[in-house]
Amino acid sequence: MLILAIDTALDACAAAVLDTDAGEFLAQESLLMKRGHAEALMPMIARVMQSADLAFTSLDRIAVTVGPGSFTGLRVGISAARGLALAAKRPAVGLTTLSAYAAAVVSQNRPAPVISAIDARHDHVYFQIVAGDGSQLVRPCVAPIDEAIAASQFGAPQLVGNAAGILADRWPENGVQPVAVDAQPAPDIGWVAWLGAAADPGATPARPFYLKAPDAKPAATPPLAQAASS
Length: 230
Fold this sequence. Notes:
The protein has helices at residues 37-52, 71-88, 97-106, 145-150, 164-170, 189-198, 223-229; strands at residues 2-7, 12-19, 24-32, 61-65, 92-95, 114-121, 124-130, 136-144, 158-160, 180-182. By secondary structure, it is of the alpha/beta class. Strand 9 (158-160), helix 5 and strand 10 form a beta-alpha-beta unit.
């Protein structure tokens, strides 16, 4: 199976082509960035596909991160995945950033539970807890940092995600301490690809996975309407 994986959900723009039959990546590229995903993504995909020496119609599916993450970044990646999937007549699947973060740790076959955490700002985090074998212990949610820490009652955890350091800094000194802290700015694009290969296209659509509403909200009365009425 040939998978094109795309990630623009957080502070990176990344793309990779995975050949699952050979168990290797034909090409991959990742750039750390907080802004500019829209300008960087399509040229990056073109370079990756050229390096892999593949046409889009040779792909079996396209995988993309669907959140939690930046609202703007998510739209960029999901729109690209949907457009390419439509043009190539191939399925597009969506994977959460939390699961992609956790996959890298779960693959190590360690017994400790894994807390994936993403900064949601305003003293909140998006988080998910899975057992060492990947089974779900706490479903993805958004909560205050202290509540996320309190939710971990499954033994000394491994912390991963761009908020892993935030949790570690707030971890109670008298509690069971994390066994590892891996504060990555974005998930490994390779694990996005592998999760995409394992996903069920019918159950994992490429659409945004939001756990909270946008921070910016429209005014109750648009400014132009206010001006017209004054």
